[in-house]
Amino acid sequence: MPVYTCTTAAGTLTPAVKRSLAGEITRVHSEINHVPPGYVNVVFSELPREDVYVGGEPGAPLLITGWARRGHPQRETTRLALAVSAAASRISGVPRDRVLVVIQDSPARSAVEAGHVLPEPGEEASWQGAG
Amino acid sequence: MPVYTCTTAAGTLTPAVKRSLAGEITRVHSEINHVPPGYVNVVFSELPREDVYVGGEPGAPLLITGWARRGHPQRETTRLALAVSAAASRISGVPRDRVLVVIQDSPARSAVEAGHVLPEPGEEASWQGAG
Amino acid sequence: MPVYTCTTAAGTLTPAVKRSLAGEITRVHSEINHVPPGYVNVVFSELPREDVYVGGEPGAPLLITGWARRGHPQRETTRLALAVSAAASRISGVPRDRVLVVIQDSPARSAVEAGHVLPEPGEEASWQGAG
Question: Do A1 and A113 touch, CB atoms closer than 8 A?
């Protein structure tokens, strides 16, 4: 259900780091938001170095934007953002000063997966898509 | 006004499928959200296969994220997500289990097109940008 | 803290225009949202021309999507979107009819930078990450 997009300047992450980071984001999200791992999408968008700016100058941040269903407790979403941030810095070696994690949301009823409207947080068990 | 981003692993969609899917998303959005077709943007972000993960493993989903103005009835947004999802699977041949559609929103007053602040849903007729 | 993604068809913006636009978005955002320039991220996502559609036909828009912390006054966010739009058209030469700016948000507590949860708008001075 969730989608994480990790945006970097090319060369910031090795293939092995990307795979490891995708796995860890999946694990952390699955645990905190109670979603089966198989529903967690993680993609990497690597841009030419001259297309990434921080403070108006070329930079090399690791920008992770996630989308999840609205309605998870705010405290859990904060915990999720902190956990993803810590994992990203630890696995990638990018200093934490250059790691930004943002979790966005919209109503479960504004999203469809496997042909079915997503369940509200906490109502996953009855979801047809999980059948 | 709206922007749809279709993210896939490279090779998932042919050029003909992309064009056809862009056309159908445009038609469906225009009809349900009452926006002239010429204001509907659809872009495709194709990533290297090794940069797309589902459940922590390389995968080949079709991830469609749309943005629209806040204030459309939720029931209509749900209908929109279902229609885009059905069209995406039908046109692309990607099994519906691998198709995710998410509609995000923000206030019309947080967006500008053609130099003008976007109209609230239902107030399009008086919009200066439509002149 | 904020992230701006500028999406175009390849060839729409020269390297010099991208750099200049990144600088101006940074300046405008910093001034209106009271964020130090060093925290403003701007990235450019250039897609093959055949992957960008407007109204169901290949097109060449300049689509700028920004994310900022929720809680800024709506009037200021509208002013920000107008200023970014004007700067984008002026600097890039893309006619304003083809420039779309969308500002999205989520709670500051749903985002982490430099290992710290982001401060609410107006509470930046006490933020640990700014230390």
Answer: yes
**SS3 track for chain B:** CCEEEEEEECCCCCHHHHHHHHHHHHHHHHHHHCCCHHHCEEEEEEECHHHEEECCEECCCEEEEEEEECCCCHHHHHHHHHHHHHHHHHHHCCCHHHEEEEEEEECHHHEEECCEECCCCCCHHHCHHHC
Report if residue A31 sits inside a domain.
Answer: yes
Q: Within C1-130, where are the H helices? A: 15-33, 74-92
Contact C114, A96 (CB under 8 A): yes
In a domain, C81, yes or no: yes
The interface predicted TM-score (ipTM) is: 0.96
- Measured CA distances, C83 to A43, A66, C86 (Å): 31, 27, 5
CATH number at residue A82: 3.30.429.10
Closest residue of chain A to C23, computed from CA coordinates: A56
Token pair belonging to B12:
């998932």
Helices of type H across A34-127? 74-92
Residues 63-122 of B with CB under 8 A from A: 63, 65, 74, 77-78, 81-82, 84-86, 89, 96-105
Q: How many domains does chain A have?
A: 1
Bridge partners of residue C111, in order along the sequence:
A102
Averages of pLDDT over runs of 10 residues in chain C (131 residues) are: 97 97 98 96 97 98 97 97 98 97 97 97 79 44
Can you list the alpha helix ranges (DSSP code H) found in C1-131? 15-33, 74-92
Query: How much is the pLDDT for C128?
Result: 66
**Angle, nearest 10°, between helix axes A74-92 and A15-33?**
160
Residue A125 lies in a domain: no
* Interstrand relation of A41-47 and A3-9 (parallel, antiparallel or unpaired): parallel
Quick check: A100 and C1 CB within 8 A? yes
Contact call for C86 and B115, based on CB within 8 A: yes
pLDDT, averaged across chain B: 95
Residue A30 domain boundaries: 3-55+69-106
